[in-house]
Automatic annotation (TrEMBL):
Gene3D superfamilies for this protein: Vaccinia Virus protein VP39
Similarity comment: family membership: Belongs to the methyltransferase superfamily. LaeA methyltransferase family.
UniProt domain Methyltransferase: residue ranges: 73-164
Matching InterPro entries: Methyltransf_25 (IPR041698), SAM-dependent_MTases_sf (IPR029063)
GO molecular function, one term: methyltransferase activity
Superkingdom per UniProt: Eukaryota
Protein name from the UniProt record: Methyltransferase domain-containing protein
Length: 186
């Protein structure tokens, strides 16, 4: 264990995958009921597409809160790392840390101000209080256990510096209509 930041070397079991219907899944995540999405090249392509769609939807903005010169940013559930990579490049004087349960999709080419760490966000964050200017959580509804959300939000706010910002992006999947013509069961 690194006494300075509380990290431990990666257990190689986190890299193990299992195959199901031609797709690769992280064995640790499936066995522990943490995450059920694939971790293969096809999923990397899917996550890259989702990132580009969101970037276009948000007019290229990566950070919405009024943060001019962030010093430290945390990306919760980095997936294929696209958001963290773009933020690290946009803010070269800022340290960007991405945390995810799976090491299988970590991009190889990354800026020096970006660090990817493997950790289970369904457990209490290991970061000390007041560490980050921005904590970003995007599309985590499928990766955070329903009983963990309250603690997850508490952890996010605990690790923010005074005046720091939490930025959450989720999709509401319930079908609905603005004009009231869609009814339950249709």
């Amino acid at each position: 264990m690194d006494t300075e930041d509380g990290t431990v070397p990666l257990d190689k079991s986190f890299e193990e995958t299992l195959e199901h219907h031609g797709r690769s899944y992280q064995k640790h995540a499936v066995t522990n009921g943490v995450y059920f999405g694939p971790v293969d090249e096809e999923e990397v392509a899917h996550l890259e597409l989702m990132h580009s769609v969101l970037c276009r939807l948000f007019d290229g903005r990566l950070i919405f809160p009024p943060v001019n010169e962030p010093k430290r940013i945390l990306d919760c559930g980095f997936g294929a790392g696209d958001w963290a990579l773009d933020v690290a490049r946009a803010y070269p004087d800022c340290e960007v840390i991405g945390v995810d349960i799976c090491p299988n999709m970590i991009p190889e080419d990354q800026p020096e101000n970006l660090v990817f760490q493997i950790d289970d966000l369904n457990a209490r964050f290991t970061f000390s209080p007041g560490q980050f200017d921005v904590v970003h959580s995007q599309m985590m509804s499928g990766g955070i256990n329903a009983s963990r959300w309250h603690g997850y939000i508490q952890d996010i706010f605990r690790v923010l510096r005074p005046g720091g910002w939490c930025q959450m992006v989720e999709i509401y999947f319930n079908a609905q209509s603005d004009n009231g013509t869609l009814h339950r069961g249709e």
